[in-house]
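Example record used in the benchmark description.
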Amino acid sequence: MNKIGVIFKGDKVIWMVFFFLCLISIIEVFSASSELTFKGGNYLAPMLKHIGILIIGIFFTLVTLNIKCKYFKIATPILLLLSVLTLIWVLIAGHSTNGAQRWFSFFGLQFQPSELAKGTLVLATAQILSAMQTDYGADRNAMKYILIVCAILVPFIMVENLSTAALLCTVIFMMMIIGRVPARQLLRLVGGVVLIIGLVVGAVMAFGEDNGDKATAAEQTKAMAANGEVAVTPSRGGIFHRFDTWKSRIDNFANKRDVPPDSVDLDKDAQTAYSNIAIASSNFIGKGPGNSVYRDFLPQAFSDYIYSIIIEETGLGGAFFVALLYIILLFRTGRIANRCANTFPAFLAMGLALLLVVQALFNMCVAVGIVPVTGQPLPLISKGGTSSIINCIYIGAILSVSRTAKQNEDVGDNDTQTGDITPRLKATTA
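Model output (C-alpha cells):
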C-alpha cells in the first residue's frame, strides 16, 4: 500500500474520480464502437487501442503530478509558441473531421492542436491573474493582457471549431470572476461579446446555407443530369463551409418542435433523432452495459454522443452518477484551491477543472437536446487520441497542485501548534 501511495500521489478523491471515469470510458467505448468494429473486422481492436491511449494518459498524469507548479510558469511561453504553430499547421495541412480541419497525424495518433491551446490559455490566464493580484482584487490591466493572449489563440480555434472557442472563452471569463477582475470591466466585456455574437450570428444566417437547402439543390442537380443538362455546383471555400454547418445547427435548434415519429427525417437529423430514441428507450433503468441498440445507428456514438449510450444502457442512475463525478471533480478542486498558499496554483487548478467540467456539461446538454449540437466529446470518457492524453495531463496538473496544497496545510497545522508563523510566511512567498 505504501508503494502504491508513493506512485499515486496527490488528492485521493481526484484519483478516485479519474479512475471511475476511465473505467466507464473503457466499458462504454467498447459498447459504442460497433461502427468501428464493423469497419475494422475486429471487435476488440477499438477497445484495446483506447485502453492503450488511457495507459499512456495515466503515465503522463503520473509525470505531470510530479512537476512543481513553478515549472508550469516556465513552460508558458514555450506552450504558447507551440500552440500557435500547430494551430496554423492544422489550418494549412490538417485532416478534416465533419467538414472542419481539426487534426493531423502524430506518431499514429490524431493530434488536435485546439486541445493543447485550451490548456495553454488557461495556464497563461492563471499566471496573469496571479501576477497582478492586489489587496483589492486583480489589477485593471489584467484583463487587457488576458484579452491579448486570447486574441493570439482563439481566432485560430474559432475558424474551424466555434464551439471549442466559445467554451474556452466561457472558462476564461469564469477564471476572471474567480480572479477578482473588476466587475465594471467584466460587464463591459459581456456587452462587447454579446455584440460580437450578434454580428457573427447575423453573418452566419445571411451567408450560410442550411443543409436542407443543400439537399434541395442536390435533388435539382440530379434532375438536370437526368434530363441531359449540365449543372455547375459552386464550391464554397474558406470560412463559409463552416457557416453552413453553424446555420444548420442554429436552424435545427431554433425551429425545434414536436414532430410525429413517422415524420422524422433520419437522414438529415440522424444525430438528434437517434440520440432521443436511445435515451427514450432506456426506460429509466437502462438495458444494461453492452446492450445498446442504437449505437449501430447513432453517428459518433463512441465520441460526441456517448452520453446517450450511457443513458440507454444504465438509465437515469448511470447518467446521474457520471454527472456526479464531474461535480465532485469541480468541488474537490475548489477545496484544493482554497488550501493553496499562492494564487497561481489555485487559479490553474480551478481553470483546468472548469475546462473539463464545462465541456462535460455541454456534451451532456447536447445529448439530451437542451443546447444546439456542438461536437464536443465527453472528457475522459469519449474515445479520442491525443485529446484523451491531454485531458489526463490536466488531471495530473490538478493533482500536482493538490500535493502543494497538502504540504501548505501541514505547515499551517504545525504553525498553529507551535505558534510560529515563520514557516507559513516562507510557504506563502515561495
